[in-house]
């Protein structure tokens, strides 16, 4: 993948191989590759997820992901329907991918 005239290596599932290379530009590029345009609502979740990863060294699977968002941002944003509107199909997996994190456990 190319972003900002730099090459970034992705694994076979499209996840960034070197987590230290992540930037908002990289996030936009990964999102675009997944037919998604990011806005401030996406980045609110992305930064929350990156903070969680720094503390726990794991990207949460879907149920813990929803619970984490609910605890941090409230019921309105911490529910599957809202997260599906931001990150369609598999919110935990797609959010982790765009956040530059490894694939969450139990996400196919």
Name the features.
108 residues; two-stranded antiparallel sheet; 5 helices; globular; Arc Repressor Mutant, subunit A; single chain; mainly alpha
Please summarize what this structure is:
With 108 residues, this protein is mostly helical.
**Spatial extent as radius of gyration:** 13 Å
Q: CATH superfamily assignment?
A: DsrC protein, C-terminal domain
Name the helicity range: 40-55%
Count of β-strands: 2
The largest sheet has its strands arranged as 1-2
CATH class: Mainly Alpha
Main sheet: strands, sense, barrel: 2 strands, antiparallel
What's the pLDDT, averaged over the residues? 94
**What string gives the helices and strands in order?**
EEHHHHH
Q: How many angstroms does the end-to-end distance come to?
A: 22 Å
Q: Per CATH, what is the topology?
A: Arc Repressor Mutant, subunit A
